[in-house]
Amino acid sequence: MTVHQCPKCVLRFERKTELDYHCREDHPDFRHEYPVRHPAAADQPHPAPPTPSSPAK
Ligand SMILES: [Zn+2]
């Protein structure tokens, strides 16, 4: 069963919507959004692609 762990506390929820509601109520400062990019990161036009963990044969 998938359990949604609250990133801000130890509580866990079965439903994503419950976690979302909990965060809004108990962690008003927390936002379910992607981290805001630092302005410095914008200077890099293309992030380096992930390196293959193992060589393809
Ligand atoms: Zn929480």
UniProtKB/TrEMBL annotation:
Region (Disordered), start-end ranges = 30-57
C2H2-type domain residues: 4-32
What Gene3D superfamilies is this protein classified in? Answer: Classic Zinc Finger (3.30.160.60)
**Could you tell me where the Pro residues compositional bias lies?**
46-57
For this protein, the record's InterPro entries field holds: Znf_C2H2_type (IPR013087)
Q: What is this protein called?
A: C2H2-type domain-containing protein
